[in-house]
Amino acid sequence: MSRKKLIVGNWKMNGLLAQVAEVGAIDKVAAAHPGVETGLCLPATLIHPARVSARSIFIGAQDCHMADSGAHTGCLSAAMLKEAGADSCIVGHSERRTDQHESDDDVAAKALAARRNDLNIILCVGESEAQRDAGHAEAVVSDQLLASLPDGAAAQWLSVAYEPIWAIGTGRTPTMEEVTRMHRSLRDALRSRIGDEADAMRILYGGSMNGANAADLLAIADVDGGLVGGASLTAEKFAPIIQAAAASG
Ligand code: PEP
Known about the structure:
The protein is α/β, with parallel strands linked by helices. It has helices spanning 20-31, 44-53, 78-84, 94-99, 104-116, 129-133, 137-148, 176-194, 214-218, 235-247, and strands spanning 6-10, 37-41, 58-61, 88-91, 120-125, 158-162, 203-206, 225-228. The relative contact order is 0.16.
């Protein structure tokens, strides 16, 4: 089954209003590659200005609360992010699973909140280095995926991002064989839960993807795109990844 490649930048806690010009530059690159779906998950403060300036990319948030409103000081609901102009939301990023102690149940509840509020979802999973060294990577990540996946998950509104924790922001990546095995095993895990819908669901790779390694990673059969941190912060660094996705069909 052919799945349109999806390239998503995650700006994390980077970017002030001055960087909205960079969003515009990335938007132009995306406009030149309509065969690739491109988006940027931005700090909440940039969602509205980016939405106003962007034409060809979707705008995402990086997290949402599982409740639609309430006494949760400092948190943002999916409804608020939608109203600000977000189309999508990352849930379960390893930095939140670690720093904010988010459990698989929390991640599934956040995904349901995003869905209730008409946001598409990028659901992140990934193993620690110790889990990989112990030979448990595929089992751990498949279990994490099935425990975090919201009920009724469908390819039209949910994509999975496999992000080995030890590869995020480190310049290290798994071997092509390791990525191939992991994505195949995640596809099998999805099939066990959602049947044939698994063939349409995009599984992104994330973790130190850059202009030099994107073509090789995106050529792997079950790699349907990338979730990109550091290399998404400028059009200069992000463009080669979007171009590699376009070339990989
Ligand atoms: C990420 O945080 O989602 C990520 C993949 O970061 P980086 O590309 O910088 O490793």
